[in-house]
Specification:
- The protein is mostly helical.
- The chain has 2 domains: 118 residues, Alpha Horseshoe (Serine Threonine Protein Phosphatase 5, Tetratricopeptide repeat); 75 residues, Serine Threonine Protein Phosphatase 5, Tetratricopeptide repeat (Alpha Horseshoe).
- It has 11 helices and no strands.
- Helix 2 packs antiparallel against helix 3, helix 8 packs antiparallel against helix 9 and helix 9 runs antiparallel to helix 10.
- The longest helix is centred in the middle third of the chain and has 21 residues.
- The protein is globular and about 45 Å long.
């Protein structure tokens, strides 16, 4: 059960909006193909979904969501090298998406490249700091602070990350997401992605 919760949290982090306030415009046909691919994912037909995601990517190279969706499929198939390639495509297409940098770092870490992982975590924290300072939306600031704290833990600054989570927990004592994060350490987070059943 914990694995499912954490995996969903990680995917939510990855597909969160960047908070820049700039509305992206994507090819409507690419969006339609992506959405159809998601439908295939929901009924456990990942191969058909991958075909539609690839078509969406071919139609609009600036649309990062099909790459994000492919990451989920490759992780479920335990094809972590392919998941990393797609995650790196997301940060190339959308370099201001802090969540994507964080997730790319987690994939690097799980595949044994702690140097690349550290660079990704640092970039993610930098982007979260910028988002927190630029945002006027209190909920977005709260979510970014939580995700930044999560990145600090992954970067090896567990005490600093946990202190921020405790502050957030005091602000929202009924937030179950923080409770889940507080119960895990860096190794637990990485293992949730690379766990085999």
């Amino acid at each position: 059960m914990t694995r499912l919760i954490i995996f969903n949290l990680i995917l939510i982090l990855l597909v969160s909006c960047s908070g820049k306030g700039k509305k992206e415009v994507y090819n409507p046909k690419a969006i339609e193909l992506n959405n159809r691919g998601i439908g295939w994912m929901k009924i456990s037909n990942p191969d058909s979904a991958l075909i539609l995601f690839d078509k969406a990517i071919a139609m609009d190279k600036t649309y990062y969501m099909p790459h994000s969706n492919k990451i989920g499929i490759y992780i479920s198939k335990k094809e972590f090298d392919k998941a990393l390639v797609e995650s790196e495509m997301v940060v190339q297409i959308k370099p201001d998406l802090a969540e994507a940098w964080n997730f790319t770092g987690m994939l690097h870490e799980g595949l044994g490249d702690s140097v690349a992982a550290k660079k990704c975590y640092q970039k993610s924290i930098e982007l979260f700091d910028q988002r927190i300072s630029d945002s006027k939306n209190k909920e977005q600031i709260y979510a970014s602070r939580l995700q930044r704290a999560f990145c600090l833990i992954l970067l090896g600054k567990e005490r600093e990350g946990r202190e921020e989570m405790k502050k957030l927990q005091a602000e929202k004592p009924n937030d179950l997401i923080i409770d889940q994060f507080m119960q895990m350490n860096k190794k637990d987070f990485i293992n949730e992605i690379f766990k085999t059943e």
